[in-house]
Amino acid sequence: MTAFKTRSAGYLANHMARSFARALADAIRPLGLAPAQFMVLLELWREDGVTQKDLVQRLDVEQATMASTLARMERDRLIERRPDPLDARARTIHLTAHARALEVAAVGKARQINRQALAGFSDDERERMLDGMASIIAALSATESGSEN
Question: Does domain 17-117 have CATH number 1.10.10.10?
Answer without folding.
Answer: yes
